[in-house]
Hints:
homodimer, mainly alpha, elongated, DNA-binding
Amino acid sequence: MARMQPAQRRAAILEAAVAEISERGFARTTSRHVAARAGVTHGLLHHYFPDHDSLLAAAFEAMALEEIDEANAAIASDRDPLAQLREITEPFGPGGGEAAYRFWLEAWAEAYHSPKLQETSRRLSVAWHELVVGVIERGIALGVFHCEHPHETAWMVVALSDAYALQTQIGSGLAPSEMNHVLWRLTERELGLEPGALARPAAAEPTPPAHSGH
Amino acid sequence: MARMQPAQRRAAILEAAVAEISERGFARTTSRHVAARAGVTHGLLHHYFPDHDSLLAAAFEAMALEEIDEANAAIASDRDPLAQLREITEPFGPGGGEAAYRFWLEAWAEAYHSPKLQETSRRLSVAWHELVVGVIERGIALGVFHCEHPHETAWMVVALSDAYALQTQIGSGLAPSEMNHVLWRLTERELGLEPGALARPAAAEPTPPAHSGH
DNA sequence: CAATGTATTGGCCGTTCGGCCAACATGCAA
DNA sequence: TTGCATGTTGGCCGAACGGCCAATACATTG
Lengths: 214, 214
């Protein structure tokens, strides 16, 4: 390939790596496939990422940063705590689609085998939790929410959102719409909202691109 | 190795496969390592499981059956719905330890790549959900629980239990004891129990071997 | 005892992997 | 222009993989 700016080349490789990981998983992601997807020889990939683990870790880091940025952007675009909470609890929450959640599932599974991935995964999980805590506490300060344990409620929201995304992929005893209904009902009760407050007055998108995770 | 009953040999191989999958994950589990762990040559393993996928699928199936059997046994050993619910919501719920949950995490991640694993995973997820539904409905019939939507509440219990186990491995904004507190508090509220009804009157084990689910 | 079926062994093959490196191409500075 | 740093290529290596198979050991049946 023609010469390219190192930063661009690196970004292209990381993008290809993220896509490859989402499709094949960490363990089955080979440097040669990533190189081919990025339009690069495997030798050049080794020039940017000396060993395989550094490539995977960098791809994970890039994906994590992108995810949390998108979440923050989605939160920042709306100053109403109730709307922010909808953004979070909407299927599958801010940040991406089913492919994005597959990535997180892979990351969680792989984290056990890699201390580096575990560290990044943990940091992001905490960041996501604190994001929700922030929304709740702002809502409390504004008098919109009433909640005794914001940290616990935030954990519930995150946990149910994750479970929603997980069981959407695997399948469970509940339909996705029912899961979302439970998530909303429990969140409303935890925050002292009136039933149905989280359900949108008018549906904006019929089938919006979804996504999940932290 | 000395000659052995085919059923025993097969069981030994499957046990080794489950252990290997739990430690290394599906993708990194090699037939040669499983064979070595089972004290068998790789050629013999091929005699029992013609190809690699059939070995992984059989190991998953075996683990799934064992898991659901243990859960049913744990439920059956106690006829009091409240005690049964404790058994389910106890960290990490009935069925195994952290290693067992790692297995499920691997299975969920791998299910996307294998229709056979996805089918088994889905069946087991439904079975687990219905197990909890059964406990709740029995409790309602006995007048111990009061619940409008047993299916939804069961999903909440399963979802939060899964999230508990997941975030125990990954890390999150909450300590394990706090997560368990949330799980109990929400379950009590959903079932019309008095606060603290799920917390054991007297702690039986200080640090019991834990585990999780479905 | 002989014979047949099966458990079991160990070696082999083709493929693919991660990693390494000599060579070439290109841009930039002296 | 010359020279050096660096992007880029493609081939090579050893290791490990899944799969295959001829040979062997053993148990059961006739």
